[in-house]
């Protein structure tokens, strides 16, 4: 017997949400598949919140920082990255979640989901044209940065534990790596 899975489109997924089918279950849509989002442990929640606050301080009103909110991608995906740094388009986001062209970069804080974040999610973000993707590896700790898209794949990978990094969209901003990966903050 062949097993065939049902693939969701963005439109069907949105209709199901509006109908209350998922009953507030934390899920995300990845390539047409519904994925249950695992509950956050304390370190994940802490570093995510601290990093979002730090980025708000650095970037101010030039961006909107969205914590664990959906983004809509063309490959039947609507993930909820831990942090999405997006254009501050105001009420446009009443009509739709940020699209790839609205996104400067996305970040995931990862321990239990590290292989998914470095595999499937990285591929989904690259295919969608997200110009930069950062993964804070809470196991190591280190920051893994993926950038320089070519043929819908990231061609550059940086692994950082110290110093600073500037996002591609904001070369004038220096982000302290240690302020993201769990060392003393805001030094």
Low confidence ranges = none
Helical stretch tally: 6
The value of Rg in angstroms is: 17 Å
DSSP, total strands: 10
Percentage of residues in helical conformation? 25-40%
**Intertermini distance:** 60 Å
Largest sheet: 6 strands, mixed
Instruction: Please state the average pLDDT score.
Output: 92
Beta percentage is 25-35%
**SSE pattern:** HEEHEEHEHHEEEEEH
Structural class: alpha+beta
Silhouette: globular
Reading side by side through the largest sheet, how are the strands ordered?
A: 3-4-5-6-7-8
Structure description:
The chain is an alpha+beta fold. The chain contains 6 helices and 10 strands; from the N terminus they run H-E-E-H-E-E-H-E-H-H-E-E-E-E-E-H. It has helices at residues 10-18, 42-59, 92-95, 114-118, 120-128, 178-181; strands at 27-30, 33-36, 64-67, 83-86, 103-110, 132-137, 142-150, 153-160, 164-165, 175-176. The chain has a 6-stranded mixed beta sheet. The protein has a two-stranded antiparallel ribbon with strand order 1-2. The model has no long low-confidence stretch (mean pLDDT 92).
List the helices and strands and how they pair.
Layout: H1 10-18, E1 27-30, E2 33-36, H2 42-59, E3 64-67, E4 83-86, H3 92-95, E5 103-110, H4 114-118, H5 120-128, E6 132-137, E7 142-150, E8 153-160, E9 164-165, E10 175-176, H6 178-181
Parallel strand pairs: 5-6
Antiparallel strand pairs: 1-2, 3-4, 4-5, 6-7, 7-8, 9-10
């Amino acid at each position: 017997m062949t097993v065939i899975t049902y693939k969701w489109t963005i439109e069907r997924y949105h209709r199901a949400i509006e109908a209350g089918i998922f009953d507030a279950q934390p899920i995300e849509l990845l390539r047409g598949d519904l994925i249950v989002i695992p509950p956050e442990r304390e370190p994940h929640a802490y570093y995510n919140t601290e990093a979002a606050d730090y980025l708000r301080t650095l970037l101010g009103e030039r961006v909107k920082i969205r914590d664990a909110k959906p983004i809509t991608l063309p490959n039947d995906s609507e993930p909820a990255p831990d942090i999405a740094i997006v254009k501050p388009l105001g009420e446009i986001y009443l009509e739709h979640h940020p699209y790839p062209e609205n996104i400067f970069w996305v970040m995931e804080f990862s321990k239990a989901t590290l292989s998914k974040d470095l595999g499937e999610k990285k591929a989904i973000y690259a295919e969608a044209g997200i110009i930069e993707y950062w993964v804070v590896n809470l196991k190591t700790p280190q920051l893994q940065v993926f950038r320089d898209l070519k043929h819908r794949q990231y061609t550059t990978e940086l692994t950082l534990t110290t110093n600073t990094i500037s996002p591609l969209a904001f070369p004038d901003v220096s982000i302290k790596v240690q302020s993201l990966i769990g060392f003393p903050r805001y030094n």
